[in-house]
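haha ok so turns out i had the wrong file open the whole time. this is the CORRECT one, sorry everyone. sequence first:
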Amino acid sequence: MTHAFGFRFRLLRRDLPGSPDLVFPSHRKVIFVHGCYWHRHEGCRYAYSPKSNTTFWQSKFEANVARDRRAASMLETLGWKVLVIWECETQNEETLRLRLIEFLKSSAGSDQHGG
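then structure:
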């Protein structure tokens, strides 16, 4: 979708904190596409908690969220702007399109939190 807007990107830059899913080097912007379940999209129906082995899963999810926050913070410190797109947000193509355009065309700020 972003390619159609004229924005060129790289996939999964492992040399950047968190290995962002989409990297726009000339704009110093990155996008993470997070699964709602694994990355705990707050308030999302897909971010349910398993009924068994709850201590293990809670610890796993907390570690994922902390790692996501650290990666975003490190990227911002390095001068990158960060956007998180949640898995559930990809279902509404028009809203996603508008959000991507707004992020990629903006010149300031960061939108880590997503929808």
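The beta strands are 10-11, 22-24, 29-34, 81-86.
again sry for the mixup
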